């Protein structure tokens, strides 16, 4: 009996270890695909930049189209934004049974919202959402770029990581840790939205508590608080589905609120909380002084084009246009031959005054400031000889500061290098962390931005802490969520959880079924991961064939395991253990060779469409499916889900210009008509995807 017990125990431990290995491998697949998608998002931004810089419109119609497509909506001044999002003109009908808000907000309002959202009652009325966003924006505008928090005023401070629209996680945090209050401070470290289905509810709750307890609730901006990212990852679609009438106004207000979110939080001058990370050029002094609201989208930083010999006005928002709330910054860059010598102070002062006044006149024309306005811009109020000697950062430098703290990740190796996995930000090593902490007299960094299996993870000799609060992020059972609590001693205390009805602790009598349940859960998550991986492989069929043939010189249709793994990694660049994954992805012949041709045949969902469509265009479309959906949402200005024929035609003209694919007008017109299956004169996303066999048919 004793030997039998030992054997059973050994078998059990080995089996649990294998399950754990499968779980980690599955999680790595999800993470690699996630980062690959984020890299595609950066590539999409580069695509936009190329079109803006290289494509020359042949008509005013094309010029207007590009303007509507790539300029992030209208750039509203203060009065225009108030008028556009006039919540007072929206009436709340008597039939409305959801929660009501009145300002200033009270704790009872927050309680009512929590109860309504938990019970999935009627959606908060659009009037209240717009009113809440209006008040939140006013509050955020008064905050510095880096919020300063002290543990002296509360027993402890709770720091939460990414939530990504998972409202159940936020409810569980409040249940375990308590609601925000004068004695319970919170720091939410960005990425409140996207991926999950209840991003809007999370923002409503957080903004409500922010207004009720402005000294105890602190919000940092994440890389997903960006309207360009929202187009791809779901928040834009969620808002338009929940608010079909006033959704566009609500989205516009969210976009403006996001750019006013603080960039970092500093606890007791010793612990810095940022969403992504740092780089070897991160400068807290610069971060404290830049105008953060100018970066409406970090992915849309437009390079300024200089004209020789003329001073340039620095754009005051992310679109290179006259913007919303901040005064324009002047960047004087005259040719040295035209500038008087500084030795002659009077001559230099006269020249500088004249030059700046010209810029003020240009600035007035851009932002439409009247000469009769009481707060008139004058030379003395905007620039002086003393100011001219102060350091002036370029727009590119400021943009990189924001990009790095929102998008960067730590790495175990020394140094700092470009983050090519995500496509944005950088990788920073332990030496970069050590120098940064020493420079600013900090103890450690808290960041989020990365899903961790246990909800948190230390690195760089426990000087960098990653906290991630969205449990079951990739699939149910894929990871835990966590938050961290800091007291006056600044020693982190972690709380882990899984917000799932089936993820409760098992009793002693349930231990016999635990292994079966664990196996089923891992199998379900694993199946989902491999399904996503196969779709990724299929999208790169042509490139894989070329890579395999380079190893199959005799054209046998077979290659070795080693060559197969090397070829797949060279194409997908996901950094996965392909040899370990091979049994789940490809069959092997008796001689140990892989039959890649039959494998590719199995991956093929169905043969290509027989429509008269150029094959090169078809492959480009399939590989860029997610990018195309994002582009469609950009073209679809009213977010109705319908694209007109004219907009579709102009889109493919831009694509052909970017990818050097020759497309005739007749060919594009034939393509448009063949896609419009219901002949209603518009193309929706499903029609487009179905035309190229991208939507799986239901059995």
Automatic annotation (TrEMBL):
Which Pfam families does the UniProt entry name for this protein?
Answer: EF-hand_7 (PF13499), Metallophos (PF00149), PPP5 (PF08321)
| Enzyme superclass (EC) | hydrolase
Q: Alphabetically list the UniProt keywords.
A: Calcium, Hydrolase, Manganese, Metal-binding, Repeat
User: Which stretches are tagged as biased composition: Polar residues?
Assistant: 332-343
The protein's superkingdom reads Eukaryota
Necessary cofactors: Mn(2+)
Query: A GO molecular function for this record?
Result: Hsp90 protein binding
Annotated EF-hand domain ranges read: 539-574, 623-658, 663-698
Family membership noted in the UniProt record: Belongs to the PPP phosphatase family.
PANTHER family, per database record: SERINE/THREONINE-PROTEIN PHOSPHATASE 5-RELATED, SERINE_THREONINE-PROTEIN PHOSPHATASE WITH EF-HANDS 2
Name the record gives this protein: Serine/threonine-protein phosphatase
> What organism is the protein native to?
Emberiza fucata
């Amino acid at each position: 009996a004793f030997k039998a017990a030992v054997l059973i125990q050994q078998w059990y431990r080995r089996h649990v270890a294998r399950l754990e290995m499968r779980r980690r491998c599955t999680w790595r697949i999800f993470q690699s695909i996630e980062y690959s998608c984020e890299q595609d998002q950066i590539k999409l931004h580069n695509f936009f930049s190329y079109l803006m810089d290289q494509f020359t419109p042949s008509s005013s119609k094309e010029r207007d189209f590009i303007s509507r497509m790539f300029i992030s909506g209208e750039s509203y001044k203060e009065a225009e934004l108030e008028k556009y999002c006039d919540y007072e003109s929206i009436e709340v009908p008597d039939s409305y049974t959801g929660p009501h808000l009145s300002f200033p907000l009270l704790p009872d309002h927050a309680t009512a919202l929590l109860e309504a959202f938990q019970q999935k009652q009627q959606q908060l009325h659009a009037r209240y959402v717009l009113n809440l966003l209006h008040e939140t924006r006013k509050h955020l505008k008064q905050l510095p770029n880096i919020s300063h928090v002290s543990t002296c005023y509360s027993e402890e401070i709770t720091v939460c990581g990414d939530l990504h629209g998972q409202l159940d996680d936020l409810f569980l945090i409040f249940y375990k840790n308590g609601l925000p209050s004068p004695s319970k401070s919170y720091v939410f470290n960005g990425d409140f939205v996207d991926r999950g289905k209840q991003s809007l509810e999370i923002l409503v709750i957080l903004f409500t508590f922010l207004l009720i307890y402005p000294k105890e609730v602190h919000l940092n901006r994440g890389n997903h608080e960006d309207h360009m990212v929202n187009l791809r990852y779901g928040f834009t679609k969620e808002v338009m589905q929940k608010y079909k009438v006033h959704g566009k106004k609500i989205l516009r207000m969210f976009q403006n609120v996001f750019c006013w979110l603080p960039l970092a939080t500093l606890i007791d001058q010793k612990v810095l909380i940022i969403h992504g990370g740092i780089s070897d050029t991160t400068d807290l002094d610069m971060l404290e002084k830049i105008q953060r609201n100018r970066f409406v989208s970090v992915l849309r930083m437009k390079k300024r084009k200089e004209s020789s010999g003329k001073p340039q006005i620095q754009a005051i928002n992310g679109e290179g246009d006259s913007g919303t709330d901040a005064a324009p910054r002047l960047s004087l860059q005259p040719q040295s031959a035209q500038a008087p010598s500084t030795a002659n102070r009077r001559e230099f002062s006269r020249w500088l005054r004249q030059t700046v006044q010209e810029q003020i006149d240009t600035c007035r024309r851009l932002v439409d400031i009247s000469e009769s306005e009481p707060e008139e811009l004058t030379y003395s109020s905007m620039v002086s000889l003393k100011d001219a000697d102060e350091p002036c950062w370029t727009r590119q430098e400021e943009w990189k500061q924001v990009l790095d703290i929102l998008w960067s990740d730590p790495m175990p190796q020394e140094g700092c290098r470009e983050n090519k996995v995500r496509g944005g930000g950088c990788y920073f090593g332990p030496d970069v962390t050590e120098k940064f902490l020493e420079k600013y007299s900090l103890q450690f960094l808290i960041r989020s931005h990365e899903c961790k299996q246990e909800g948190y993870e230390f690195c760089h000799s426990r000087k960098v802490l990653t906290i991630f609060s969205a449990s079951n992020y990739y699939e149910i059972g894929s990871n835990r969520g966590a938050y961290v609590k800091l007291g006056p001693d600044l020693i982190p205390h972690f709380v882990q959880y899984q917000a799932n009805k089936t993820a409760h602790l098992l009793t002693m009598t349930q231990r016999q079924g635990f292994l079966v349940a664990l196996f089923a859960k891992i199998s379900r998550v694993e199946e989902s991961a491999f399904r996503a991986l196969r779709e990724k492989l299929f999208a790169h069929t042509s490139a894989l064939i070329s890579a395999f043939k380079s190893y199959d010189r005799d054209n046998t249709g077979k290659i070795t395991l080693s060559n197969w793994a090397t070829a797949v990694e060279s194409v997908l660049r996901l950094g996965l253990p392909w040899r370990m994954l091979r049994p789940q992805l490809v069959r092997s012949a008796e001689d140990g060779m892989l039959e890649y041709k039959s494998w590719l045949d199995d991956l093929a969902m169905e043969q290509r469409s027989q429509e008269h469509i150029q094959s090169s265009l078809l492959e480009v479309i399939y590989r860029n499916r997610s990018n195309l959906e994002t582009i469609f949402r950009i073209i679809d200005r009213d977010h109705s889900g319908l694209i007109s024929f004219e907009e579709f035609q102009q889109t493919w003209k831009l694509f052909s210009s970017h990818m050097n694919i020759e497309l005739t007008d007749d060919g594009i017109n034939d393509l448009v008509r063949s896609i419009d299956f219901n002949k209603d004169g518009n193309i929706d996303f499903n029609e487009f995807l179905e035309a190229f066999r991208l939507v799986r048919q239901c059995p």
